[in-house]
Amino acid sequence: MSTAITTGGPRALRAEVVSVREAGRHHRVSLRVEDLTGFRPGAFVSLAVGDQHDQRLARRSFWIHRLSPVGLELLVEPVGAAGRWLTSAAPGTQLSLIGPLGRPFALPSDAVTCLLVGDGRAAAPLVPLAERLRERDAPVHVLLTGRDASDLLTSHDLRRLVRTVTVVTNDGSVGRAGSVAEVLPEVLASSGAEVVYAASSSPATLHAIALAAEQHGAWSQVGLEVPHPCGTGLCHGCGVPVVGEDGVGRTVRGCAEGPVFRGDRVRWVDL
Amino acid sequence: MGGPVIPAPRVWAAAGCGGTGRDLHQLGGLAGVGLVTRRIGTASSVGGPMAVIQESPSGFVHATGRHAQGIDGFLARELPWLVATGVSTVVSIRASDLAGHTELARRLAATPGVSGVELDLRHDPDLPVASTPRGAAQVLDAVVSQLPGGQHVWAKVSAAGTQMLETVSAALDHGATAVVVTGTLEAAFGDGRPAHLSGPAVHPVTLRLVGEVRRVAPDATLIASGGIVDAASARQLVDAGAHAVQVGTGLFHDPLLAARVAAEIGAS
């Protein structure tokens, strides 16, 4: 046991790559991290990627996909300089990790029916969320979407946690063909969900989910991916336009005041 | 008579790079470090777009955006925590006119717990008031008369102005207690929008400017900012004549950088 005083806030830690395994078009990156405490679903970690001679300085944010016995696991797409570096990192590679960061998904106080909508790699935080909701005896339904079969989150570990899993791919290679917006009203109606949790790298998709939830009379919480230059709230470079409880428009930090927002609080057209 | 007044602490988080202070503090990044706040204006424009920040090789290209924290919100929601936590706080202020600067200084003078103000005299096409030597003198006059003695009045200048040394002299003549010299360069985003470049790429520029200002103002207190990535790069600026340093965009990559620099520089 660590004798350090734990406040549950983020900490700057050292991480070590344990393994990188392909999962469709994404990679599961397992990191050894000591003393990561206070994790809640929807939180993220900020990594300094690249070696010390790399000329790139911005950090990168990744959803915590799950905790593991040695640390945690991330889902990473081998795209861009950071994604390629991380998915090709050899076991034993050391990197700076800060976390857990951000405002996570808020859990309902009662065991209300929940629908979790996950788009591609961004569905990563929904697995630990489903686990927490299950612990609270909340009936959970899942709608997974992606560009094609290789983009979908593997659903076998979700299936044991939830009542139904509906799959939609844009190209129809698995499940139903179409967009999440086309299928959502039907899934909302059949599940009777009172709360919708969603995560996507596409603001347009999240907007559509938030609208559908509102029309159905459900609360929505959306996990928003906007680039975080620092991830720690320092740079004010990840502005998200929102409207406050007082009805006044504000721009807040996507990392520190997010990444999870109430769907009806984001000014989607200004994003 | 006593020579330059060395600011305490000697290492600061630069304006706009330390968040609200809380973010840095909970990671341990403010240990031995003072905070220069992000730019505080007369009125809040928090609905506007925030800063735009893009990485470039060995640097960050950034623009401030229209988003500004107003003095009311700052005094109500941010300063009380800084004071309660014991963070040495210098407030970066900038208004669109002289009356605005006077107003900001007057409000801060009436608020206990602030160590002083930093005036951003760098060239900004949207805020032309301060970016000439004459303008700098007028801004200093508008501010200094409001503040109680013993407070920091820092004038932040950069190589972006064509009359940097004249601006430095004007600011010192009109009551600045220190000059913040920054190697931040005027730059542009890929689409041509104006921006600034900072980060390790500009460290040699900062080094040059510190030397030049040292030469024209040998008795002035100098604070160097721009390109610090470790204790050694901070030490170089101190050796060139800086009495204190500000760590800026380096914090985005490593939020504990200023605290580590403070552990080495601050102790000596």
Describe, in plain words, how this protein is organized in 3D.
The complex is a heterodimer of chains A (271) and B (268). With 271 residues, chain A is of the alpha/beta class. Chain A contains five helices and 16 strands. In chain A, strands 4-3-7-1-2-6-5 form a seven-stranded antiparallel sheet. In chain A, strands 11-10-9-8-12-13-16 form a seven-stranded mixed sheet, with helices on both faces. The longest helix of chain A is centred in the last third of the chain and has 14 residues, at 203-216. Chain A is globular, with a radius of gyration of 18 Å. Mean pLDDT of chain A is 92; it is low at 1-6. Chain B contains nine helices and 14 strands. In chain B, the strands form three sheets. In chain B, strands 1-2-7-8-9-10-13-14 form an eight-stranded parallel barrel, surrounded by seven helices. Chain B starts with 10 loop residues before the first strand and ends with a helix. The A-B interface holds A 7, 9-12, 48, 55-59, 96, 98, 229-230, 232-239, 241, 248-251, 253, 256 and B 16-20, 22-24, 26-28, 38, 46-55, 57-60, 62, 65, 67, 199-200, 249, 251-256.
Features:
heterodimer; A: 271 residues; alpha/beta; seven-stranded antiparallel sheet; seven-stranded mixed sheet; 5 helices; 18% helix; disordered N terminus; B: 268 residues; eight-stranded parallel β-barrel; 14 strands; 22% strand
Largest sheet: number of strands, sense, barrel closure of chain A: 7 strands, antiparallel
| Major beta sheet, strand line-up of chain B | 1-2-7-8-9-10-13-14
Average pLDDT over all residues of chain A: 92
How many whole angstroms does the radius of gyration of chain A measure?
18 Å
Gross morphology of chain B: globular
Our estimate of the beta-strand percent of chain B is: 15-25%
C-alpha termini separation of chain B: 23 Å
Shape annotation of chain A = globular
Structural class of chain A: alpha/beta
* Quantity of strands of chain B, as a count: 14
How far apart the termini of chain A lie comes to 44 Å
**How large is the share of residues in beta strands of chain A?**
25-35%
> What is the strand tally of chain A?
16
